[in-house]
Write a structure and sequence with these properties.
The protein is mainly beta. It contains two helices and 26 strands. The chain has one domain: TolB, C-terminal domain (Neuraminidase). It is 3% helix and 43% strand. It has a four-stranded antiparallel β-sheet with strand order 1-26-25-24, with no helix packed on it. It starts with 33 loop residues before the first helix and ends in a 9-residue tail after the last strand.
């Protein structure tokens, strides 16, 4: 069922939109390395769709050859199938980040529900977890599923600060944590406590590294952690993105990290060295590997969905 909501101002006119204060800023050009140039077919960026207010959370569903992504302020999710875009879920309860589990279900971070959802192929939706020690989560933001079925997610308060990306509310536990949730046992564990605003999250293909962005007021960092037995150690700064920020990101099959980086996608190799950048016309939120061969990088950027054809596959296509 479609639900009508009050019409919101365009992204470039609304101070609540995450892109608003960056609208007049541009990325500095960088020299792409030979390694990076071998990963991309060209610098051609294709616009697939325009019409969102803040596009986020792209996820590729391989069994349907379908890309799903969020339009958070408009409280809906969209889908791309056979080159055509239509609504996937409306209302979505202000879903932000999405990923796929090991059984083909979509795992979604709901700002409105302050929870994680599991959505099956028939759009049946169930709440997986919505509290930490009996206190409501803030507003789950981004999510990744490991091979052991554990679900890793970040929990900043962006969805409860205003009614633009959720419902205004209060933080109930003291912090903004990175969590690991085990569906089979319904066990929720705190992984990281000391980030200001944990945001994007992913794990390396060999599952030995955890990558988390912090988008606090004066901190725009992407970090790497060693991951052993689902515990983290040895935090390492990958990059300081100021004046922009790293929001969402994914790894390719060789462990290169492709991340939103202002009005661009930046790529870091597995040694955490910046190897290249592709400029995007709008502020980027996130990216995802998709297509039948896994070599299409889909990019969500404010009002639009873009794609870049690569000579490389995403991690989960290896």
């Amino acid at each position: 069922m479609n639900i009508s909501y009050k019409k919101l101002p365009p992204a470039h006119e609304d101070p609540r939109n995450p892109s608003y204060k960056y609208k007049n800023l541009q990325n500095k050009n960088i020299q792409n390395t030979e390694k990076f140039n071998k990963l991309i077919k060209s610098n051609n960026v294709k616009k697939i769709y325009s019409g969102t207010l803040w596009a986020e959370g792209p996820v590729y569903v391989s069994q349907s050859d379908m890309l799903v992504w969020s339009d958070i302020p408009n409280n809906r999710m969209l889908k791309l199938i056979n080159g055509k875009v239509s609504e996937y879920k409306n209302p979505s309860n202000f879903v932000n980040g999405n990923t796929i589990d090991n059984y083909g279900n979509i795992i979604s971070c709901s700002h409105g529900g302050r929870c994680l959802y599991r959505i099956d192929n028939n759009l049946n939706t169930e709440i997986l977890i919505d509290n930490y020690n009996g206190k409501r989560l803030n507003s789950p933001n981004d999510v990744y599923v490991k091979s052991d079925d554990s679900i890793w997610f970040t929990d900043p308060p962006y969805g409860i600060l205003t009614d633009y990306e959720g419902y205004k509310g209060k933080q109930e536990y003291d912090g903004c944590y990175v969590f690991c949730y085990y569906p089979e046992t319904n066990n929720l564990e705190v992984v990281i406590k000391n980030l200001i605003r944990p945001n994007g999250i992913t794990i390396s293909p060999d599952e030995k590294k955890l990558y988390v962005a912090d988008t606090g007021e004066n901190i725009k960092h992407l970090y790497s952690y060693d991951l052993t037995d689902n515990k983290v150690s040895n935090r390492t700064l990958i990059y300081d993105f100021k004046p922009f920020f790293s929001d969402g990101f994914r790894c390719d099959k060789d462990g290169n990290i492709w991340t939103s980086a202002g009005k661009a996608i930046k790529c870091f190799n597995s040694d955490l060295e910046l190897i290249g950048q592709i400029n995007i016309p709008e502020l980027v939120s996130n990216c995802e590997f998709g297509g039948k061969e896994g070599n299409i990088l889909y990019v969500t950027a404010t009002t639009s969905l873009y794609s870049i054809e690569l000579n490389q596959q995403g991690a989960k296509f290896d």
